[in-house]
Amino acid sequence: MEIIIRPSPEECASIGGRIIANLIKGKPDAVLGLATGSTPMPLYCELARMHEDEGLSFSEITTFNLDEYIGLSGDHPCSYQYFMNKELFSRIDIRADSTHIPNGEADDIESECLGYEQAIRSSGGIDLQVLGIGSDGHIGFNEPGSSLASRTRIKTLTGKTIEDNARFFDNLNQVPRHCITMGVGTIMDSVSLILYAFGERKADIISKAVEGPVSAMVPASILQLHPRVRVIVDEAAASKLTNIDYYKEVYVNKPDWQE
Ligand code: GLP
Predict the structure, then answer these.
(1) By percentage, how much of the chain surpasses pLDDT 90?
(2) DSSP alpha helices (H): ranges in 37-176?
């Protein structure tokens, strides 16, 4: 794991933006895995800026989002489809039919999940997956206790996640109880990953995910077993890491060729 600690979410976003731009320059038809929540928003602003100011084109890429609530239509303002259209897709030159988000309104959820896995495979697999982290350690919506080998499937949200995500809804009762999420195994198949976390409220879970034991009770901790993961955090989210000085030293002294 490479742990990158920067003072602000914007600086973290600019590193991610550069990584994605380099990927697309080398492979214009790259496959990106995308996340929702408040954490990736600075990255999406940065990508929109790079498109606008630097002419970075997304016209050949394919995207797969991690998850979607069950029961919300794509035009519901709290659906992840709506979020992605608003925060990213409408601001760049991506083709709508190259973007994929699980259909939370599918009649047959099981075949929707199997089809999603198949679509990822048919695209050649995800080159770079962007992740946030839930305060209980979930990635996608893989709640504590999720199989570390799981594939795309239906999950029930924990009370903690419902509480955390209620801020996007009018009240707690409106938060759907179920979702479709890529599995932990699906996420781990990505060639490389970026895990973002910002703010003090993520400090505890970042220290568990990065420096604690690998455990299904902290699904993000499985990333310790992946060879190409960057954890990009601001100072506040990094504040409970034990090896913080070492991570900073590694980053500052990184040889140019490693960039
Ligand atoms: C949701 C998403 C996750 C995201 C998490 C954190 O539960 N399914 O993918 O990482 O929220 O949200 P936030 O970034 O708003 O803290």
Answers:
(1) 97
(2) 41-54, 80-87, 109-122, 159-165
